[in-house]
């Protein structure tokens, strides 16, 4: 799977991976379809690992979006989605239930594809949505177009 994002959540990080199989045989848009994976991991002790030498395992370049409520007048801001709050669904509410406790999961972030193909995750022209269950320490990811 291709590494898509690391979202830092205080003491933990949410890591997002998505299948980039060619010609697209994975159900990577579905939260539980097996074509993507989101993991909650402790930030303490994380070690950066080299990407595998074969396959499409990382985006072509790194991009660090910024969080901003408003941009100063006359400037252009680069915001790749929403952090916290409520998701801006493209096709209707698809909030997943936790596979552990079966409760509705908490929204973490909405990700957009990005302004440049080198670091654009392929969400079919849409947006990705990350969710977590703090009690079960589970995370899920899906996208809509």
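Q: What amino acid sequence fits the structure above?
A:
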């Amino acid at each position: 799977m291709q590494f898509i994002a690391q979202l830092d959540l205080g003491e933990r990080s949410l890591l997002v991976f998505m299948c980039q199989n060619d010609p697209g045989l994975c159900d990577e848009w579905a939260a539980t379809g097996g074509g993507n994976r989101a993991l909650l991991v402790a930030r303490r002790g994380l070690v950066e690992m080299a990407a595998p030498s074969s396959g499409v395992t990382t985006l072509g370049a790194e991009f660090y979006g910024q969080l901003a409520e408003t941009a100063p007048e006359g400037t252009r801001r680069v915001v790749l989605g929403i952090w916290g709050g409520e998701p801006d669904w493209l096709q209707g509410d698809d909030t997943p239930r936790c596979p552990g406790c079966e409760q509705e999961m908490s929204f973490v972030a909405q990700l957009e594809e990005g302004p440049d193909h080198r670091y654009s995750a392929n969400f079919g022209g849409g947006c990705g949505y990350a969710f977590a269950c703090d009690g079960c320490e589970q995370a899920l990811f899906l996208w809509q177009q």
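Q: And what stands out in the fold?
A: The longest strand covers residues 2-9.
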